[in-house]
Amino acid sequence: MSKAKFLRRLSAVSAAALIVGGCMGGGSIPSASAPITTTEAQQGAEFHPKLLAQFGGEMTGSQAQYVEQVGKNIAVQSGLGNARESFTVSLLNSPVNNAFAVPGGYIYTTRQLVTLMNNEAELAAVLGHEVGHVAARHSQRRQQNAQRNSILGVLGAIGSSILLGDSSIANTVSRGFLQGSQLLTLSFSRSQELEADDLGIQYLTRAGYDPRAMGTVLASLAAQNNLDARLQGRDDARIPEWASTHPDPASRVQRAINAADGLPGSVTNRDTFLTRIDGLLYGDDPEQGVIEGRDFIHPELRLKFTAPQGYYMVNSTRAVSINGQGGQAQLTLAPYNGDLESYIRAQFNALGGEGNNLAPQTLERTTVNGIPAAYGQARVNNGQQQVDVTIFAYEFANDRAYHFAAITPAGRSNTFASMFQSMRRISQAEAAQVIPRRLDVVTVQRGDTVAGLARRMAYDNGQVERFRVLNALGAGDDLIAGQKVKLVVRAR
């Protein structure tokens, strides 16, 4: 990846975010026969390239074409007068489980979410939920109710700051730290989510799909959340509010299952779906860096660091975040003119936002594993609590620097000290060892077992649990000869 391309990508985190919800009911469903207007289409066209840039870019090829086909087919069920022609369906090169929509008929799903699905009906359920948001004009209603948090406003803020301005910098830091492009699609109201669920299930039924797919994809998401929490050493599987565009799926699984009871539709197209997604990139794209346990490695930028024990990382197309009970941090970059001290001051100023003159109270130079570095700290009080903000920057070239921005409770700024000191350059040989993971769809043979197939998963831990969640297999479910299942393997 070119440095210019990386500069465009790496400036604000887009953390893991969840998608759809549940069932029929939840109020009356509005008529969705009005075609997408010229104004809506123009608005979506403005957002579209910015969203693609924020979420890793648009994938191409047969897998993307398949997702587009399913999305357009389900959009037709919405009753919008020009649905097939007006909707734009994009498969995003992002390693987080996410799907969203913006006005004008633009709907998106990440490749990672697609890998978690197990049939075409689940793909249609996710995309149908997002079509429901468009058909019900949820974004427009949200913008009318909260103009200061509108998409345009957030787009204006991204790129100048990883935090959005507020009346108090500490309040901003505590509420908004690590927010970024996910705010483009953040938090429809619960009633809007339920309305989109209801519409999505209607679309499934009209298209002949099994309406239980809404519940099964939610169950897979809930299971993945639980597994991630266990593997990352977190106490629970809840995604923080700042990282979630949709409510927790675990609380909505049963609602979706109940809603599907007795409804017509049985098509799943499981084998077709699995065949079409075979080979899809899984997890981190090496062009965006990869997380291996507590290590983050970027083979193209030739850098590596290690998160503190007990902390977990979320990689995005624009940054990597480090999260735990004792604080949060993110690695990103900004324009660099060769002066680390002015670079750090600029990052503090950006964190402060308009009207908040935030500056480092201390600023020192150092060297980390042979890399010129500097760090600044400031303590901020919002009237209720004090927090320490640290910017730790590294000069990798005369015109290129990276920095951690970290927030910790007052007096605990050393929480990330080991991580700051772990930053180092990597060799070409180390970079070459970073090999991406991909889906490998295989047919179960007579005598195959869960344990046996799970040993082929490209992970050092949780192989059986990962295999079961990936294939929506319960603890007591066995394999059947002839069925197709997914593995995650190294792409040689």
Write down the domain tally.
3
Strand line-up of the largest beta sheet: 8-9-10-14-13-12-11
Number of strands: 17
- Average pLDDT, all residues: 82
Radius of gyration: 23 Å
Specify the helix fraction band: 25-40%
Strand content: 15-25%
Shape: globular
What gap, in angstroms, lies between the N and C termini? 20 Å
Separate helix tally: 18
User: Describe the biggest sheet?
Assistant: 7 strands, antiparallel
Spans of 5+ residues with little confidence (pLDDT < 50)? 1-31, 146-186, 239-245
* Class per helix and strand makeup: alpha+beta
Structure notes:
With 492 residues, the chain is α+β, with helices and mostly antiparallel strands. It folds into 3 domains: 3-282, no CATH class; 287-432, Mog1/PsbP, alpha/beta/alpha sandwich (Protein Transport Mog1p, Chain A); 437-490, Membrane-bound Lytic Murein Transglycosylase D, Chain A (Roll). Helices cover 36% and strands 20% of the residues. It contains 18 helices and 17 strands. The protein has helices spanning 3-9, 38-54, 62-76, 83-86, 111-116, 120-135, 138-145, 151-157, 169-176, 190-207, 213-232, 253-260, 270-277, 340-352, 417-422, 428-432, 450-454, 463-470; strands spanning 88-92, 99-102, 106-110, 281-282, 290-292, 295-298, 303-306, 312-315, 320-324, 327-333, 362-368, 371-381, 386-397, 400-409, 424-425, 437-443, 484-490. Strand 5 and strand 6 form a beta hairpin. Helix 6 (120-135) packs across helix 11 (213-232). It is globular. The two termini are 20 Å apart.
